[in-house]
Design goal:
heterodimer, A: mainly alpha, two-stranded antiparallel ribbon, two-stranded antiparallel sheet, 14 helices, B: alpha/beta, 6-stranded mixed β-sheet, 4-stranded antiparallel β-sheet, globular
């Protein structure tokens, strides 16, 4: 009950902030919620199943381009675009799972990284369709949902909150469901999980598809809400970022991706206001956090204060 | 019940088991002994499908276990406690048991039954598995395997490195499972640790099956054990 109250409480606070925040932070928080949704997708595979992917930008970009290209070339609205992006990313994740899950450890990281790079190069190669390096600005029709323009600040914030709420509560449900518990068992000791009768490959495949779908939904939402689709979102940097958010916030915790994304976003934002060498400040802060909170912020809360925190 | 017919298995090109045959009946404890490197652990792993066979057959009742994928073997009725315990170290005692119980559909009656066998665990449900003592970890590994309600229990050196009181507690549970009709294949290095509970003792040497003798005969005359276990 306390756990549910905590998560619903966070969503209520985020809802209330819609009416209280100044425009700058209002826009930032909308972006953070979409990125945190991406982090939740990443956390499912890394935090719960223990599979460290370096290619999640492929799923984020699949969702983004799946949505964006349907709008640009098919004239679809936001609802259809969102669905297309999510399904496209899930399909890509399913295909990648067939290859990548034959490997483990460092090999898994390399395979996912290479496929993501292949995806990035594919976007550049088919520039006539994807806009290549420059990407494209979404047509306004792609931001319309039932007569509401999701590109306006208010609607954008609420749409981001809706996406984040669905991902957060879905993640909470998954952490408590048998599927999520088996993923944790796989992370802890895959062979033992298999020796208790669990088909660990099927579970990992399911986790990868679900992780890809959530990441893709975040990518599609980013395109729809912020009106831009670009190849930079398919670069390796966008595979590293969710890893950092999850590590900082706490891998295998439901709130960790949000806390990590918020922390990192504002750390860079604030540091860049102080000096042009803002990444140096961000780097020092990350090193300190790694030293003094090695399980991430929410991981430390779980370790020190609240053992049952999911 | 569990039957091994001329099984050949190993790792890559290295053969470890050379045509091992063995049968295990319901309600008996068969102890498998041999020197280091004799192939005891490989034999258990082969039964569980973790080491592929290159010859022979393993059957449980009428079911060919060697034709099943590894994750289906436990569901056929086998519980396995590997050497070194291999717990979900970062999870609590309760969570470790929960994972085992979920495989059986989350039977809460079974949970109480298993905890009744291990009162020490019942008092430490919230404790992380890695913080338990060696004996308690072994109890947890055994308890988790019992959560599958196995017909056959495979135990790989369950008393290794434990103090005498823990050995006695584990031995008591294993004997009780045997009395309840479970077939137990127990791998051990020390004869003294198994003679009090074993019904039969089989010796393995260099991946080949040696004699299988009754525990009573071995208590009367240990010369066979000296031959297969001595330096």
């Amino acid at each position: 009950m306390r756990v549910l109250a905590l998560h619903l409480g966070l969503l209520a606070v985020l809802g209330a902030l819609h009416f209280a925040l100044p425009a700058y932070h209002h826009g930032n928080l909308a972006r953070v919620m979409v990125l945190a949704s991406y982090g939740i997708g990443y956390n499912l595979l890394f935090g719960y199943a223990g599979l460290l992917s370096l290619g999640h930008a492929l799923f984020f970009a699949s969702g983004m381009y799946g949505a964006g290209m349907l709008v640009q070339h098919g004239g679809a609205g936001a609802g259809a675009a969102m669905l297309a992006g999510t399904v496209a990313a899930a399909a890509v994740a399913g295909l990648l799972a067939l290859v990548a899950l034959r490997t483990r450890g460092v090999a898994f990281m390399i395979v996912t990284l290479m496929f993501a790079q292949a995806g990035y190069l594919t976007i550049l190669y088919f520039g006539d369709w994807t806009g290549g390096d420059e990407g494209f600005v979404m047509a306004q029709a792609g931001q319309m949902l039932g007569g509401i323009d999701l590109g306006t600040p208010g609607a954008r914030y609420l749409a981001a909150l809706a996406l984040f709420s669905a991902c957060l509560m879905g993640s909470l449900a998954l952490a408590r469901a048998p599927f999520g518990r088996v993923l944790v068992a796989i992370r802890e000791n895959e062979e033992r999980a298999r020796m208790l009768g669990y088909d660990t490959q099927a579970h990992k495949r399911g986790a990868m598809i679900l992780s890809g779908a959530i990441s893709g939904a975040a990518g599609a939402a980013y395109a729809i809400l912020f009106g831009y689709v670009g190849a930079s979102f398919a670069e390796v940097q966008y595979s590293i970022l969710p890893l950092l958010w999850v590590l900082l916030g706490g891998a295998g915790t439901v709130l960790g991706p949000f806390v990590g994304a918020l922390f990192m976003f504002y750390l860079i934002d604030l540091a860049s206001g102080v000096t042009s060498a803002y990444m140096l400040i961000a780097g020092v802060a990350l090193v300190l956090l790694t030293l003094y909170a090695p399980q991430g912020l929410m991981g430390e809360v779980r370790r020190r204060l609240w053992r049952g925190l999911p | 019940m569990l039957r091994l017919d001329e099984i050949v298995a190993g790792y890559g090109r290295a053969r470890v088991l050379h045509g091992v045959s063995l049968s295990l009946e319901r309600g008996e404890i068969l102890c498998l002994m041999g020197r280091n490197g004799a192939g005891k652990t490989t034999l258990l792993r082969a039964i569980m499908g973790l080491v592929p066979l290159s010859g022979g057959a393993i059957t449980l009742g009428d079911e060919r276990l060697d034709r099943l994928p590894a994750h289906r073997v436990p569901r056929a009725g086998l519980g396995y406690v590997p050497q070194g315990r291999r717990l979900f170290a970062g999870l609590s005692v309760a969570e470790n048991l929960e994972i085992g119980l979920m495989a059986r559909g989350g039977d809460s009656g079974l949970r109480d039954e298993v905890l009744g066998l291990f009162p020490r665990l019942a008092a430490r449900l919230g404790q992380r598995a890695e913080t338990l003592s060696g004996g308690e970890q072994q109890m947890l590994a055994l308890a988790r395997a019992l959560c599958l309600r196995p017909d056959v229990l495979l135990l790989d050196e369950p008393t290794e490195g434990l103090q005498p009181s823990m050995i006695a507690a584990i031995r008591e549970v294993v004997a009780a499972r045997r009395d309840a009709g479970v077939a137990v294949l127990l791998v051990e290095q020390r004869l003294d640790a198994v003679l009090p509970v074993a019904d039969r003792v089989a010796f393995l040497e260099n991946g080949r099956m040696g004699p299988v003798v009754s525990a009573g005969a071995l208590r009367a005359d240990r010369s066979v054990a000296d031959r297969y276990l001595g330096v």
